[in-house]
Design goal:
By secondary structure, this protein is mainly alpha-helical. It has one domain: Amino acid/polyamine transporter I (Up-down Bundle), CATH 1.20.1740.10. The chain is 81% helix and 0% strand. The protein is built from 19 helices and no strands. Helix 2 runs antiparallel to helix 9 and helix 5 packs across helix 16.
Length: 423
């Protein structure tokens, strides 16, 4: 009974670890940015990325949890040195995400207190390091994020109620999008990377492995946890999409990334254009336009909390992959995590442009997905790795290959458009 309770806790914990890894400041900024540019057609991107994310994650989690080995170890078993390559890629993608996460902290501080972005980056980085050094602070932050997540959903529902988004048009465009195909490609790559790209999908699987939820006998629970994580992230994404769609529909032509450009748009008050002094923060500004300053402050608070937890999560998981390279890293894990955060903070402080970098980070991690999923699919058919009795579902394997091919195609063909994401 005790073991079953522990297993249930691990299943839910892994699902929410994956979901909270995905629902960071990048998630909020990407959703706002692409809803602003694609309008109702963004529903199609959400649907496609949701299906592809579920297929990718089911395949990866099954392979890792059946073997009881981490992603880099499975890759090394498959081909000597491949695990080091995969670990390096995921750590690199984690760094890209973490640079954006630090920027997300700056966005949160700016929306809350009007703090300049470079100062906000430094404070966010230092705050994350303090949390790493204090065990009690970690549990406090975990609790705070749960409550703030609930607050964010309430604020999203309020904005949906106020702006009354065109749900019918959103449903129609979800299945028959009117936006240009190349724009849909770039957005799909970014959402895929932001949901299951890079370290994100491995975080939940590794959590299950640490809890001992491994082997064929636990595959049902592994599948349940995987789908649960994807569904939690999807529900929040859909609600956020509808809230922001209501804003961009109510204020035709509104620019969520550059509020100063909105002067003269029908329905936009002077306060919503010239009176807005924040840095480019599409998600928070959407709440500001939709429900006023109180919603804007709440959005800033949630973005800040999501940023701090994402900074810690990305650094922790990325370093867990780097441990493959040398035992010194494993022995001094905390210091390497702190160093990872410090480097991310320094780069973000120098570069600036948090909102654009948060979108780019998702695209970068989307490019990694075909490799990490491809490795797991090859391993799934290797009896030396999986065991003589293991049988990977044929339908899931075929769908996994399709996702690899689509993700690789979208990634390669979207490379030329990535420069547009960063200006």
């Amino acid at each position: 009974m005790k073991d079953k309770k522990k297993s249930t806790g691990a299943i839910i914990g892994a699902a929410f670890l994956m979901a909270t890894s995905a629902i960071g400041p990048g998630f909020l900024t990407q959703t706002a940015t692409f809803t602003g540019s694609l309008k109702s057609s963004f529903g199609f991107v959400i649907l496609v990325s949701l299906i592809m994310s579920a297929i990718a994650q089911l395949n990866i989690w099954r392979v890792l949890c059946t073997t009881g080995k981490r992603g880099q170890d499975v890759a090394n078993d498959l081909l000597k040195g491949l695990g080091f390559f995969l670990a390096g890629l995921i750590a690199l993608g984690g760094l890209a995400f973490n640079i954006g996460n630090v920027g997300g902290g700056a966005l949160g501080f700016n929306a809350l207190f009007g703090i300049p972005d470079k100062i906000g980056c430094i404070i966010a980085g230092v705050l994350a390091i303090v949390v790493i050094l204090s065990k009690n602070a970690k549990s406090i932050v975990d609790q705070v994020v749960k409550y703030l997540g609930a607050v964010m959903i309430i604020v999203i529902l309020v904005v949906v109620f106020i702006t009354k988004p065109p749900v019918g048009d959103a449903i129609k465009n979800t299945f028959a999008p009117s936006a240009p195909f190349k724009d849909l490609q770039s957005a799909t790559l970014t959402l895929l990377g932001g949901t299951v790209g890079g370290y994100i999908t491995f975080a939940g699987a590794h959590r299950l492995i640490d809890a001992g939820v491994t082997g064929d006998k636990n595959l049902k629970e592994v599948n349940k946890s995987s789908v649960m994580g994807i569904c939690v992230a999807a529900i929040v994404r859909i609600l956020l999409f509808l809230a922001i769609l209501g804003v961009v529909t109510k204020f035709v032509g509104i620019n969520l990334s550059d509020p100063a450009a909105n002067a003269g748009i029908d329905g936009i008050t002077e306060e919503l254009s010239t009176g807005y002094t924040g840095i480019s923060n599409p998600a928070a500004y959407a709440f500001y336009a939709g429900a006023g300053k109180v919603a804007y402050r709440f959005a800033g608070l949630v973005i800040l909390a999501a940023a701090i937890t994402s900074i810690i999560g990305a650094a922790y998981t990325s370093v867990s992959f780097l441990k493959t390279f040398h035992p010194v890293i494993a022995k001094n894990e905390n210091w390497f995590i702190i160093g990872f955060i410090a480097v991310s903070t320094l780069i973000m402080t120098i570069l600036g442009g948090a909102a654009k970098l948060l979108v780019l980070a998702g695209a970068v991690n989307g490019l990694i997905l075909p490799i990490s999923l491809g490795v797991c699919l090859v391993a799934a058919k290797n009896k030396r790795i999986m065991g003589e009795d293991y049988k990977h579902p044929t339908w899931l394997f075929i769908l996994g290959i399709i996702v690899v091919l689509i993700a690789a195609y979208v990634g390669i063909t979207s490379l030329g458009n990535l420069k547009n994401l960063v200006g």
